[in-house]
Design a protein that fits this description.
By secondary structure, this protein is α/β, with parallel strands linked by helices. About 35% of the residues lie in helices and about 10% in strands. The protein has helices spanning about 10-20, 40-45, 90-110, 135-145, 160-175, 215-230, 250-255, 270-275, and strands at about 25-30, 50-55, 80-85, 115, 150-155. A five-stranded parallel β-sheet has the order 3-2-1-4-5, with helices on both faces. This is histone deacetylase.
Length: about 280
């Protein structure tokens, strides 16, 4: 069943990945939005041609999915990577999980292209988020993925303190095209007053309590890496002609044959709904 969820009524990321699959055997999706990337994960939950990797707040928090134990189904078993985090994670502790997990995925999965969702609601001070990343901590994730020199498509995501989202996506766009905007002054415009009182291209962390202990992060990192090592190395697909332009109607018809493989897991989201949390 197809339905809108959150603030999304079209899954543009899934459409983008489907297009990339016309030219690449394997595509990696990396999501640093504070919310679990449930829609993209669900779309590719039974295939090994797309690996999804989501770093997100987990617990009594929308959408309630993304348990570390949710790793895919059928051919997609172990190709969904979920990194469940707690409130207040900062630059240093986020990096301690992000880099080793992504490094192992790159080494083992060998994607031909990467789609990176740069949700700004993982920034410090977001109105709906609960993480404590600075602009530079957030951008360091983009920089790390870019360092592998693999074709990369960057997309936006959540972000509800708009001035900080604008700052961060401007800075990260600069990173993507090789422009260092660190020392750039904000240009005067009709919205200049929104960026006071500092009027700088910066989003600092604050003194929020970090509930992610070193022991907890080491345990989830070790479990994820162990899962990655137990899957086949760089799965391949048989060489074939590049198909024509993507047609939504054809794709929906093809989905019917996969109905028997539908994921019947009772997700954490359903549990939260039954508890009246969502």
């Amino acid at each position: 069943m197809t339905e809108a969820s959150g603030f999304c009524y079209v899954n543009d990321i899934v459409l983008g990945i489907l297009e990339l699959l016309r030219y690449h055997q394997r595509v990696l999706y990396v999501d640093i939005d504070v919310h679990h990337g449930d829609g993209v994960e669900e779309a590719f939950y039974t295939t090994d041609r797309v690996m999804t990797c989501s770093f997100h707040k987990f617990g009594e928090f929308f959408p309630g999915t993304g348990d570390i134990k949710d790793t895919g189904l059928g051919k997609g078993k172990r190709y969904a990577v979920n990194v469940p985090l707690r409130d207040g994670i900062n630059d240093e502790t986020y990096k301690s999980v992000f880099q080793p997990v992504v490094q192992h995925i790159m080494d083992w999965y060998r994607p031909g292209a990467v789609v990176m969702q740069c949700g700004g609601d993982s920034l410090s001070g977001d109105r709906l988020g609960c993480f404590n990343l600075s602009m530079r901590g957030h951008a360091s994730c983009v920089e790390f993925v870019k360092s592998f020199n693999i074709p990369m498509m960057m997309v936006g995501g959540g972000g509800y303190t708009i001035r900080n989202v604008a700052r961060t996506w401007t800075f990260e766009t600069g990173l993507a095209v090789g422009e260092d905007l660190t020392e750039q002054e904000l240009p005067y415009n009709n919205y200049f007053e929104y960026y006071g009182p500092e009027y700088k291209l910066d989003v600092p962390s604050n003194n929020m309590t970090n509930h992610n202990s070193r022991d907890y992060l080491e345990r989830i990192t070790a479990k994820i890496i162990d899962n990655l090592r137990s899957m086949p190395f760089a799965p391949s697909v048989q060489a074939q002609e590049v198909p024509g332009d993507f047609n939504v109607d054809d794709y929906i018809e093809g989905e019917d044959s996969e109905a028997e493989e539908a994921d019947i897991r009772r997700t954490q989201r359903q549990k939260l709904e039954s508890m009246g949390v969502l």
